[in-house]
Amino acid sequence: MHWHWTAGTYQPNRIERERYHILIDGEGREHSGLYAIEDNIPPLRPGGYAAHTRRANSWAIGVALCAMGRATQYPFDPGPWPITDAQLEALAKVTARLCERYGIPVTRTRVLSHAEVWPSLGVMQRGKWDITWLPDMATPGDPIEVGDRLRAMVRERLGDGRTEAEGPDSRMGGGALQALMRALRRIFGASRGP
Ligand SMILES: [Zn+2]
């Protein structure tokens, strides 16, 4: 799952809804994108999936905060639509729900911001700094540190002890693996007891 901001206003427009599966407006309300999450299961059909991350869209859910239009990185200016606290709350909630539903572990390589894709997945992106700034920060920070903060918010929501973050599974991907992980979690989850 990749987190983005739209670099637009607090409301999603049609182009943005084409690009992301789920969009969160300025007040923290969810909007559906035009493509289904399943449309990003490879093989991707040209023009038939949510193209949210350069060369890394397969198996990747795109969730975007509607914000940061006209923001500039250097010198930093959040512009007229800075990320809101309501959006962050909603992002944590939506992410936790999707992680549960699809059996996605909350790790740096499986749940990450667009800005983390290059450093954490090694897939080059062009000048992407979403999400390196949060409302309580004076200037943008390190992509992975900011990502860690967001992941901590998600784990709080999950509240199921699934914090053994960077397990060996985190480097692999694919639906078969996700199905296996789900099955394993069911088995171990069931035997662990209350
Ligand atoms: Zn992005």
CATH class: Alpha Beta
Number of helical regions? 5
Strand order of the largest sheet: 3-2-4-1-5
Radius of gyration: 16 Å
Overall 3D form: globular
What amount of the residues lies in strands?
5-15%
Uncertain runs are 164-173
Termini gap: 29 Å
**What ligand molecules are bound, each kind once?**
zinc ion
Mean pLDDT: 90
Second CATH tier, the architecture: 3-Layer(aba) Sandwich
Helical fraction equals 25-40%
Q: Provide the succession of SSEs.
A: EHEEEHEHHH
What number of domains?
1
Please identify the structural class as seen in this structure: alpha/beta
* Strand elements, count: 5
Explain briefly what this protein structure is.
By secondary structure, the chain is of the alpha/beta class.
Give a structural overview.
This protein has 194 residues and is an alpha/beta fold. It has a single domain (2-192), classed as 3-Layer(aba) Sandwich (Lysozyme-like). The protein has 5 helices and 5 strands. Strands 3-2-4-1-5 form a 5-stranded mixed sheet. Strand 2 and strand 3 (30-32) form a beta hairpin. Helix 2 (85-102) packs across helix 4 (143-158). The longest helix has 18 residues, at 85-102. The protein is globular, with a radius of gyration of 16 Å. The site of zinc ion has 4 residues, from loops.
